[in-house]
Design a protein that fits this description.
- β1 and β2 form a beta hairpin.
- The chain has 210 residues and is mostly helical.
- It contains four helices and four strands, in the order αααββαββ.
- A two-stranded antiparallel sheet has the order 1-2.
- Bound molecules: 2-acetamido-2-deoxy-beta-D-glucopyranose (4 copies).
- The site of one 2-acetamido-2-deoxy-beta-D-glucopyranose has 4 residues, from loops.
- One of its GO terms (biological process) is cell-matrix adhesion.
- It comes from Oncorhynchus tshawytscha.
Length: 210
């Protein structure tokens, strides 16, 4: 729409008349112009509405057509059961079990196969770095003696000696008892090597040389 600026700045009669003429011209053109615009807008709106409805139907259909997977059924059942501490399975976007599952209340994590069944030897207690299930290429290493001993000690009395294992699950050459501060060297079976124990505050023996 044209704005009439002239009357404000130019008070001369001629200019005002000219403006009036322009205004009339504009008014005469407006009905046909706006009718065309309205028709175009109506068509555009109709097309947009159809596109919106069709895409909405597809979006709804997508969510509704795929039946729930066993993981999703198990998850939804667990979530309805609002008791705190209940294990809620974790599913990916396709509804499949995620390779790693954790219990929020106990802090335990473990690996599952595609049926959601726990793979033996993959459970890790809270505070222990969980096994990265997805990078194990389907074959998950069973726990080593060091890892079994560590996990058992984690459940034992507070202050008990907890073995230290490396990434491959072997005993690290040096072991320390956190609560007493004693350290010693072990052989690959985790057995203490005689004469290597050092009390807290004393220089430790380099077990790697042993
Ligand atoms: C998952 O593990 C369970 C128990 O070990 C087994 O019965 C089932 O066949 C496994 N499923 C797949 C798809 O490997
Ligand atoms: C994982 O499995 C694939 C196919 O079986 C194989 O080619 C690849 O070498 C495996 N990777 C590891 C780290 O085992
Ligand atoms: C570790 O030490 C224990 C006790 O000395 C011994 O019985 C065992 O054979 C040793 N293990 C290895 C792998 O050397
Ligand atoms: C122990 O000895 C090894 C081999 O000589 C050396 O590489 C390492 O840095 C030493 N570690 C410490 C804590 O002194």
């Amino acid at each position: 729409m044209r704005k009439l600026v002239t009357p404000v700045t130019g008070p001369l009669k001629g200019e005002v008349e000219e403006v009036d003429h322009n205004l009339q011209t504009t008014e005469r053109e407006t009905p046909s112009e706006s009718l065309g615009t309205v028709q175009k807008e109506t068509i555009t709106m109709a097309i947009l509405t159809i596109i919106l409805l069709v895409s909405t139907a597809f979006a709804l259909g997508d969510g509704m057509i795929r039946p729930k997977t066993p993981c999703e059924i198990a998850r939804d059942t667990a979530m309805k059961n609002v008791r705190p501490g209940v294990y809620v399975p974790m599913c990916d976007n396709d509804g499949q079990y995620k390779p790693e599952q954790c219990s929020g209340s106990t802090g335990y994590c473990w690996c599952v196969n595609s049926s959601g069944q726990k793979i033996p030897g993959t459970e890790t207690p809270p505070g222990i770095a969980p096994i990265i299930c997805s990078t194990q290429n389907g074959t998950i290493r069973p726990k080593t003696p060091c890892e079994d001993a560590r996990d058992a000690a984690t459940h034992g009395p507070i202050g008990a000696y907890i073995p230290t294992c490396d990434a491959a699950g072997r005993y690290t050459p040096e072991q320390c008892w956190g609560s007493t501060g004693y350290c010693w060297c072990v052989n690959s079976s985790g057995q203490k090597i005689q004469g290597t124990e050092t009390p807290p505050g004393t220089a430790r023996i380099n077990c790697s040389i042993k």
